[in-house]
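S.,

Sequence below, as promised.
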Amino acid sequence: MFTIAHRLRAPSQPASRVVSTALRLVLGAVWLAAGLLKINDPDGMLRSVRAFRILPESLVQPVAYGVPFLEIALGVLLVLGLAVRVSAVVSALMFATYIAAIASAAARGLRIDCGCFSSGGDLGADAPTHYTSELVRDSLLLLVALVLVWRPTGYLAVDRLLDRPVDLDTSHDPNQDESALGDPSQGDPSLGDASPDEAGSGEGATSTADHRRSDVDGFESLKK
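The prediction came back faster than expected:
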């Protein structure tokens, strides 16, 4: 169980990275195409937003002018691989909003073009709607965004460069280990601060005591 959970959390396999990279580039290209088409046709974007009859008129213009810039920004971030998970979350929310808006228009019997990649707006009496294909397309893109939220790590991404660990450790000094082990030439550390001359041997200490005792005996005999 632990191995399976670890594999789900850590998308380090090359195949997973390749898939994540491909989905990220596809989604980034979609956002760039949609945003550039809309930003070149601001009047068409106004007609498209107004045709849904969801927002009050005071919000139609800000949304119509702001959405293309947001889509272009998401496209640039995804293509560069910068803040991929955040961009994927925002993308998923936008696709969910688009799906809800199209489904609402279909349920209310409106005949409109969503304007995702065109001018959009109300359709004529003879013009067919494309709600089914638009819902399927946005649902697939929503799935792509959710996959990137789950596994944002891929190749050719700025995030990968920023997440690279930096070794801040200083170079290792082998002299520190030698000093920690101690210098064998200085003798056994268990002897403390005593020098070899001070330590002496048992035989030498006994001889010194005998000489002192003989001196005392000689002094006592002289007194007598």
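The longest strand covers residues 112-113.

Coffee later?
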